[in-house]
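Homework help board

Subject: predicted structure for assignment chain

Our instructor gave us this sequence and asked us to write out the predicted structure in token form, then describe one feature. I got the tokens but I'm not sure how to describe them. Can anyone check?
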Amino acid sequence: MMIKRLGGFRRSGGNQPTPAFAPAVDEEREALALLRDYENSGLGWFWASDAQGNITYVSGCAATVLGQSAQALIGQPFTSLFILDDDASADNGRTLPMLIGTHKTFSAFTARARNEGVEVWWAISGRPQHDDQGNFLGYRGNGADVTEALSEQRDSSRLALFDSLTGLANRHSMSQRLTNTLSAYKTSQRSCALMMIDLDRFKQVNDTLGHPAGDALLKQVAERLHAVIDKQGEIGRLGGDEFQVIIPDCDDRGKLGDLAKRIIALISQPYSIDSSRVVIGASIGIAVAPFDGADSEELVRNADMALYAAKDGGRGQFRFFSIELQNAAEKRKILEEDLRDALVEGQIRLAYQPVVNAHSNQVVGLEALMRWEHPDFGELPPSLFIPLAEESELIVALGEWALRHACHQAVEWPGGVCVSVNIATAQFARNGFVATVAQALAESELEPYRLELEFPESVFATDETLLDETFAQLKQLGVKLSLDNFGAGNSPLANLRSAPFDKIKIDRSVIQEMTNPRSRCAAMAASIVTLAKKLGMETTAEGIEARDELELICELGIDQIQGFIYAPPCSGEEVTDALATGQWVIQPDGPARQRADRRTVLRRVGVIHEDFRYDVMMRNLSRGGAAVEGLIEVPVGTDFVLDLGEGQLVVATVRRSEGAEQGLEFEISLVDDGAGGLVTRHRVPRHLLDAMGMPQPGHTAASVIALNTTGGMHLPKFATSDAGKVGRAA
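My token output:
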């Protein structure tokens, strides 16, 4: 039987046609219709290319997205449809041209469409086509719009890496960045500084204004951190009121200290939250790799330790990590536990510092100051344990005890002198505070005018209505109100218009700087005195220690003075005895000038000369020099390297030499350590110190140690003096 193919029909011996290919044709038409519908739906599109990668077919819907016709795209390179220089257009290091060049199947490669206006992302797949001989003919493939899915993925990734409230990097992201940075820097011994920042008095904002106000405050803090840090480092929020800053390639503690001061100053500026004026502060701990930690865990732990030290030191300060802080941290844990029992066991007592009339030197009042007689550590000042009390909320119990105790003791004093008691913000904001004051007066029978309550400026973070009502009720009781530490931070001048204070106390930090001719603090103090007089308030200068300070502050017309130049804090019994004689008049007695820049230290340090390290006693220390004792026969002009420990080496020249004492002048000045001490800007890494033969940390050095510096074979040049005995060093 002869079979003929005629136009898709088959004839088989008879005259009737049989439609053998009709189902196949219908199937192809149906498939083509389905493909067209799919293309028109926008769910996906198709493409084909020749062996050279040029387009032979592309769906019209894809061409429309690109702003062209499908016919216009024929013959163009397939890769020209995409923006291929975007970071997201790489898949495990492989680009789209690389994938096509392999002549292998690829799937769901994400690339951005080269279009104008709205950003569009496609997932591209391709299958290579070959002839019967295996020759590569080109690609056939498809694409799909994944813009929305990619956007959701990015949002999810961002949530995993960034803080949703502030937009800063979150704890996980900062941890990864720090780990990666330290790992990359380890081989080359590059440095990396880490700052841990904790907001002071933030909890009071949440408690008084609510959590929405706290969230708004955190956003503003993040903006201020950006303003200070800019491009110097990475900023993150770890959670709550904790922030972190990573500063790569920085070990200059002078620059880091200045940066910390700027952060503290800017964060401490007042905020406006829901029409309320809010004042907070910041404490900062700083650690620098590789000196303070080789890995991220150690560096974070040591920066945290420095942060705790900053908060313990009175807050609003910064600290660098040092080995001594480890001992302090252990002591802190002990104190935190012991403080809870201190009141019950009668370990807390009050000391009273006289406040004198600036014109007559007569004692007109006494400030009650808490002291803790610890069974193991002896007497502890409030600057050490009050921050612990505030964190553990024991401050309210301590404050109420101090108020009652001071009233009961003051009522026994003759002469009608006033007693002032410090009130913490948490104590002020507590329900029933005014009733507590009234009860203390009633139980002690102390006249209200003899009680003065001292408030920190953080009290203005309290709800404005509560603030006004509480102050009004206190004035109705008849007690005096004082604003403490004025000028130390961001003095709330606007609030003085309505707050009924009887007195302003000028902070010690202002007094200290008044004698510096380059400082503006003298003008600032004069303005405070003038302002107080205009508002009908008295003024007290705190912390006067030297006669030059006393002279300057008296010239301003100050009303009252408090400080060691008159008397240190004394016991209640001593106050009673002094007042029993009638008028208590104290004549000022102090040094002519306050040498705040020179600190008595009395600690062992090393002096390096040529190949030897000598163990000496450092008597005092300033930014530009030090006085040491322990070497004799040292000519003026001798160059030394002073070893202050922990890699702190300072080049110094002997400018004065008398017997076993030498006065040294530093080649590079020391910088502030945030704790009232001084440190070097830079440190020498431990591996270099070991190579020199320097003693390990904690090692008790001999009077003279030979070092591996020049390799010279000679004897030590200088004799040593130890406890009055002078002998030639061996």
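Reply (TA_rk): Your tokens look well-formed. For the description, you could write something like this. The chain is about 35% helix and 30% strand. That's the kind of observation they're looking for.
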